[in-house]
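Appendix B, Record 12. Input sequence as logged:
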Amino acid sequence: MSELTQELKAKIITQLNLEDLTVDDLDDHTPLFGDGLGLDSIDALELIVMLDKSYGIKLSDPKEGRKVFETVQTMADFIEANRK
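Logged structural output:
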């Protein structure tokens, strides 16, 4: 699973233009929103697009999105469970 989390970290950094961060700066369990990385609702939309384009996963329920985007690890777990 660590290969997927490393890949996800790189995609998040690229997708959201987080140029001041490296893959090593992101912990698998750091919250992506709020006190963690501090992402916002626009970032969430970009992550939804990334899931669709990169992994063929569509999120339609906002409540589901909150759970999925808690941390890099929760995203990786969701992708593993739902990847096409």
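Helices lie at 2-15, 41-55, 62-68, 72-82.
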